[in-house]
């Protein structure tokens, strides 16, 4: 679930020690998100436009005591994080989960996810860390012996960085029967054509790989098995396809679909804001604004200036909405909340109708309620579902962090030792790797003093912003301003970073040793009993 760019400098960078993620890899694909590939992101802004990822800056003021990765823009995007932030502020239940595919040593890029899980746990969230061993075996062909070795290393580093196993849960996909049972149920709501469209699977894809995807969907929803709650999945943007599919499956598992409606006919999502705009404008067209008619609304909508009403919609959506309104004739246009029977038993559907208070109207496959808000209706539907044996899942949220640039340029990769610093590296080796790293410096010291360095293109500055400055924003800002102002030269900057990295690795590895006994006492296996049978090629 987690794997292993440049913009112009502005005042927000200087004030907030933010980073745009360092140098972009040449030829990076800005729009293809491959959970198992080696894609890098050349322009993070395109993710907002093309995949609907929301900018994290918009929700940042709503987060109490935000983590420094949030403050510095390393966490740049989210899907539906507000329910998590609200639960955090109000002291309500929420959860955080992310997973690690044990295909190599944990490195400083993975530390971003470790930190996000631990921070959410410290804010009161139920925390889950998982080893995606089924995925590693099916998608990467890793042997179980290799998986065991790397899994142990990930767990020790997560514990050493501060994960509290008494307040959280660690598990392996292969050992968690509840998870596998949930994956089986989710699989009944997915089909292979979706996997072809989302992941590019074809006839050569082995079935275990397909199964591992459904298992990851179950991972994402696993924190809600006991009770529905806001849940956030911190990942890199390449994992967004998993999050989108999980959100869809959470919705498909629900007993009832709750929508806003205005008449007896059904509206598509694209049509709903158009009909809502017509209802809001009823004073302009209705003979009796207290009882506007669908036919009147259709006539108004066919000629309305939608821009003036703050509505953006495709012309095809307008045409279809107008047609539905015209066909409804003199039926009153009246807001209501609609409960659609998606997967409910007859008993659950009858119980829902009984539970709806106020004016309501029952149809064969749905019931309309006129005195409930959407939020009230959604919560009522969830309560009835749970009472009748359903899951009541909430759509999971997600956070997206920038990829760390490799020390040699390009993407940091576990398969290129010189590009990353493993959390298992000898501290002196970590020191040497930083000293040998590419920088954003000028050709000569004279030019550096004259023009300043290019911190936004510098993997070494990223080390300060992502890790070495810790929670000290003032220090990160100082490094940035001294670099771009020409006061800081690359030799001294790398020496300072190398010393800090050596100290970090020394401290981390001491804590890893202390966690050996803790790990031994946890209810998680570090040795698989499975036999090695190489999966087919993908």
TrEMBL record:
Xref: InterPro entries: aa-tRNA-synth_Ic, Rossmann-like_a/b/a_fold, Trp-tRNA-ligase, Tryptophan-tRNA-ligase_arc
Biased composition (Basic and acidic residues): 1-19
GO annotation, biological process: tryptophanyl-tRNA aminoacylation
EC number: 6.1.1.2
Motif ('HIGH' region): 102-110
Catalytic activity: tRNA(Trp) + L-tryptophan + ATP = L-tryptophyl-tRNA(Trp) + AMP + diphosphate + H(+)
Top-rank lineage group of the source organism: Archaea
Entry's Gene Ontology cellular component terms: cytoplasm
Keyword Aminoacyl-tRNA synthetase attributed: yes
Keywords: Aminoacyl-tRNA synthetase, ATP-binding, Coiled coil, Cytoplasm, Ligase, Nucleotide-binding, Protein biosynthesis
Region (Disordered): 1-36
Coiled coil stretches, renumbered: 494-525
Compartments reported by the entry: Cytoplasm
Main localization (coarse): cytoplasm
Motif 'KMSKS' region, chain ranges: 411-415
GO molecular function: ATP binding; tryptophan-tRNA ligase activity
HAMAP family, per the entry: Trp_tRNA_synth_A (MF_00140_A)
Cross-referenced PANTHER family: TRYPTOPHAN--TRNA LIGASE, TRYPTOPHANYL-TRNA SYNTHETASE
Similarity comment: Belongs to the class-I aminoacyl-tRNA synthetase family.
Described function: Catalyzes the attachment of tryptophan to tRNA(Trp).
Protein name from the UniProt record: Tryptophan--tRNA ligase
Gene source species: Halogeometricum pallidum JCM 14848
Gene (UniProt): trpS
